[in-house]
Structure formats: structure tokens, C-alpha cells
Structure prediction request, 254 residues.
Amino acid sequence: MFRMVFSIYLMVVPMGSLLAQQLTIYCEEDPPFQMMGSDGQLTGLTVEITTEIQKRTGNQDAIEMVPWARGYDAVQKRPNTVLFSMSRTAARNPLFHWVGPVLEASYSFYARADSNLVIKNLGDAKKLKRIGVYINDVRDSFLTQAGFKNLDRTTNNMQNFKKLMAGRVDVYASASISIEEEARAAGYKASDVKEVFTFLHFQLYIALSKGTPEGVVKAWSDAFASMQKDGSFARLHRKYYPALPLPGKAITTF
Prediction:
């Protein structure tokens, strides 16, 4: 009997220790996905999804808001690190464990509403004087790899919006689901800009660093799957994006 109990103990303890694994959890300020509310608390679609996953896995680690560059560097170099939300691309795909997709949308170039600018392809965009991008973001990476030499990098899209309205960039790269919040944060309206060319479709995920125990990764993935199954994910999605379809099947090959 003792041997049987001890054997069960050996099987149970490792899994419990995995689920109790301390994690460093980062997010960037990227309204309306993740942002600081008027009460000083983190809120937004991906924040609510992540905190629900934490509840279901028994994780109580705090979520820390940091600049994207810092979080992205940490999730590449340190095990037991979580970063959200991240676009999944061919270059990034092998670098992380992925939980999601939590959102699906497109990136486009935006010009001032009074602009006569016409962009029919990426070649046209390469001829512009300056394009505003968020430094080290997927838009920056994609356009850099596509051979763009005219990128004007900033640390957030509120600055890009202001630069566009001041005539300091010709266009800036953003997503339609973010424009309204970016305009508000910059002191403008979404109608002050217009979409001129869509250059990238994407899915957003919660990324876990390599070296994070397999049991932890599975627990987070299973928790997200259970949110999809019981309808809680759909309810959160509708809360923030009532007119946007739920993400499709995860794109895992590129």
C-alpha cells in the first residue's frame, strides 16, 4: 500500500509543480487590446482572456505592462515568460509557444483624410518619403524584410498618428480595429484618417517562451480551448468587437 501511495505521489507532484510554475507575464500598452483603465487597473480584450486563463490554471502572477521592445526581448531569452498580444508570422512561428488565436485582423497604411495619395501595391509605398511604424513590431519587421528603406520608427502608434496629422510622415501602418482608440489617444477622430492600402493579414496570440515547461504550455492551451468550448471567449470577443467575426482556425504553417 505504501508503495502504491508513494507512486501516486510521484506522479501527482510534478504536475502540480508545473501548474504552480511562477511566470513573468508581460503586455504592452496597445488599446483596445490591453490598456490601463481609469481605475488604474489593466483592462482590454487580451487582458481579460489572459486573466481568465490564469484563473483556470491556478496562476496568480501579476501582469506587468512594459514597452514592446523590452517584453519581446525577454520572451525570446528567458523561459517561463509570457507576452501578449503577438502577431504570429513565419519568422516568429518557431520561436515561441502559441496560445490562440485571440483576434484576427489586417494591417493597412493610413493617410490623412484630406490626402489624395493612392497606393496600389507595396512598390508604390516604397516611393513615399516616410512611413510611420511601431519599432520592432510585426509591421516594422514585415516592411523591413520587404525592403522598405523609408520607415520612421516610434515607440507607439499615438506618436505615429500625431506625426501623420502634422505632416511628418506620409502614412502610418495600423489596424482598423485600433484606429479609433489611437485617434482618441492622440486627440483626434478616426474620421481624420483614411485607409489607403492593406498589406498584411494577421492573427494575434498569447506567446510563451521556449524553455517554459511543456505542462504549463499545455495547461494554458487547454484553458483557452475550454473558453472557446464554453462560450466565454466568444462573449469577451463580442464585448470588445461586436461586429468582428471570431478568429478562424489557427494558422500554423507559412
Notes: The two ends are 53 Å apart (CA to CA). Confidence is low (pLDDT under 50) at residues 1-18. The first helix runs from residue 2 to 19.
